[in-house]
Write a structure and sequence with these properties.
The protein is built from 9 helices and 32 strands. By secondary structure, the protein is α+β, with helices and mostly antiparallel strands. The protein folds into 3 domains: 139 residues, Jelly Rolls (Sandwich); 82 residues, Immunoglobulins (Immunoglobulin-like); 299 residues, Alpha-Beta Barrel (TIM Barrel), CATH 3.20.20.80. Bound molecules: beta-D-glucopyranuronic acid (BDP).
């Protein structure tokens, strides 16, 4: 899939704006033909991109989990005549079926990743109605399992009931949370480009286009030619390797030439030349060891929910710079491409995570693995050319319910999943985020290149006891060191309510959060196998309702509206090396 772009061969229309939405709590829309669109009286206005929850809270849809039909009309301009016209959606949470003028056109693939649909109705010089049936429920056996009242009851876990019902600790926002586009590309054009660039200036491009297509690649004044489906290789002399200190980016032009050697299609991708590898307990970037300092984040904000928020992106990258962070994990799902544009340009290292949270091995079937593999493949396809992406994270906290099936059944699952990912991209290390319950010999560690652990000592365990928390952390770091790989603390932290203070160690105060983070950081820094840590979380974020959460998960070092807590200043001193 090629991201929408505009040049002499390609064009797009951004369908962002006010759409209409009709909720379908009884799941009757499909049978009743809502795919053709609805009259305004049955619908609410909704901004796209944007989640329906906070936008339509007053209409009663804050906690809505189910199907909803979103619609808009678009005029297909004359300039699109004779071209391949598609509808592209950068993501639909969590799944969508798309109709054009009432006819089914196609559906989404893995959640949080783009998909395209085509329809014979998409022809130039007419107005078409786009209707998307979006559903924010998750299947029980998916890579991120859903949950319902039945499971809470059957598992005897009524105290774990969240509203809306989820198995994870963030809000299941529904809607079209990233832009939707109408695109026009040449018939028989370039369909995909796989790029890999290394610090020695070598660039390999494999282009998907009609068989036999003649391909030309150019970057920094260098050119190479070849054919679709075969790697085309070129070398840039005196390349400036990409790094956080010098995030040098290069524009790569990929052209398809017709039989006469005339350019018939062109796409551009921005990349950077760099190497990432694991060596013993170290992670090397361009041959130099790196310490990861940063955060797990979320795509989350007031009103828009998970909707793409460009001002917030600008702000967040400013804050990462201000605090001296060099890295982020896209916990717990692939983020927008706009986010990765910033990471590439600002030199922020990214651990790119697939959407698999709290995988439950009591429910894993063959279909789970197939879906998980598809999600990994789609993520690598979308982000594989990004210099900022230094590792793929294939799951967050599988086995967190402490189910015995995790130990007995997950080994072969991880073997297949990790081997598959490694074959798709041998240039990046693989990891997953381990939860304490999954053990210090988590079967996924055998496959991972980096051993990542999430640890909440001082919070869920040993609350209020920072010294004890550090001892527990040290014991776990020592124990996982025996895997002989770099060790990374992918999550640690404490909730703090901005403005809550105390002179003694008290949970929820700004001082406790800051002191816990300081103590953990000292331990991570001194541990020989540890390549750094990510504080959980960058900013406070909304969760589903539960007595454990005060609307938000308060582990942010910034508030949800990006004001610093005490921990932010402490981290800034630690990471920027101030006294
Ligand atoms: C970890 C999860 C993360 C949660 C965090 C917490 O990976 O999604 O938000 O705990 O409890 O277990 O704050």
């Amino acid at each position: 899939m090629i991201r929408p772009q505009r040049n002499s061969f390609r064009d797009f229309i951004d369908l962002s704006g006010i759409w209409r939405i009709r909720f379908d709590p009884d799941d009757v829309g499909e049978a009743e033909g809502w795919c053709a669109g609805s009259i305004p009286a049955d619908t609410h206005p909704i901004a796209v991109p944007g989640s329906w929850n906070e936008q339509l809270a007053e209409a009663g849809f804050m906690d809505y989990l189910g199907a909803a039909w979103l619609q808009t009309d678009v005029f297909v301009p004359p300039s699109f005549e004779g071209r391949r016209i598609r509808l592209r959606c950068d993501s639909a949470d969590f799944a969508a079926r798309v109709f054009v003028d009432g006819e089914f056109a196609g559906e989404s693939g893995p959640a949080f990743l783009p998909f395209e649909v085509e329809s014979e109705r998409l022809v130039a010089c007419r107005t078409v109605r786009i209707v998307a049936r979006v559903d924010n429920r998750l299947a029980l056996e998916g890579p991120t399992p859903g949950v319902g009242m039945e499971q809470y009851v059957a598992e005897g876990r009524l105290r774990d009931e969240y509203r809306p019902a989820v198995r994870f600790d963030f809000f299941p926002y529904g809607g079209l949370n990233r832009p939707v586009w109408l695109t026009a590309t040449p018939v028989g054009g370039i369909e995909a480009v796989k790029l890999r660039a290394s610090a020695d200036g070598r660039l390999t491009a494999t282009v998907e286009a009609p068989a036999g297509s003649h391909i030309r690649i150019s970057v920094a004044g260098q050119e190479a030619e070849g054919f679709a489906g075969e790697p085309v290789i070129l070398r840039v002399p005196d390349v400036r390797p990409w790094s956080p200190a010098d995030p040098a980016l290069y524009d790569v032009a990929v052209e398809r030439l017709d039989a006469l050697g005339v350019v018939a299609d062109r796409v551009e991708l921005r990349t950077g030349f760099r190497d990432v590898e694991v060596c013993g307990h170290e992670l090397l970037l361009n041959g130099q060891p790196v310490t990861l300092k940063g955060f797990g984040k979320h795509e989350d904000g007031p009103i828009r929910g998970r909707g793409l928020d460009l001002p917030q992106l600008v702000k967040d990258f400013g804050l990462l710079d201000w605090i001296g962070a060099n890295s982020v994990r896209t916990s717990h799902y692939p983020y927008s491409e706009a986010f990765l544009d910033f990471a590439d340009a600002r030199g922020v290292l990214v651990i790119d995570e697939v959407f698999s949270v709290n995988l439950d091995f009591r429910r894993v079937t063959d279909a789970t693995l197939v879906q998980h593999q598809a999600a990994v493949r789609a993520l690598i396809d979308r982000d594989g050319h990004r210099p900022s992406v230094i590792a793929w994270s294939l799951a967050n906290e599988p086995g967190y319910l402490n189910e015995p099936e995790y130990r007995s059944r997950s080994g072969p699952y991880w073997k297949v999943l990790f081997e598959d990912a490694r074959a798709l991209d041998p240039t990046r290390p693989l990891t997953h985020a381990n939860v304490g319950y999954a053990g210090l010999d988590d079967p996924a560690f055998d496959q991972a290149d980096v051993v990542s652990i999430n640890r909440y000592f001082g919070w869920y365990q040993a609350p209020g006891q920072i010294e004890r928390a550090v001892e527990l952390l040290r014991a776990d770091l020592d124990a996982v060191t025996r895997h002989g790989k770099p060790v990374f603390v992918a999550e640690f932290g404490a909730d703090a309510l901005a403005g809550q203070h105390s002179t003694s160690p008290q949970l929820f105060t700004e001082e406790y959060q800051a002191d816990l983070i300081t103590a953990f950081w000292a331990e991570l820094e001194r541990h020989p196998a540890c390549i750094g840590g990510h504080v959980w979380n960058f900013a406070d974020f909304r969760t589903a309702q539960h007595f454990r959460r005060v609307v938000l998960n308060l582990k942010g070092v910034f508030t949800r509206d990006r004001q610093p807590k005490r921990a932010a200043f402490v981290l800034r001193d630690l990471w920027k090396g101030r006294p």
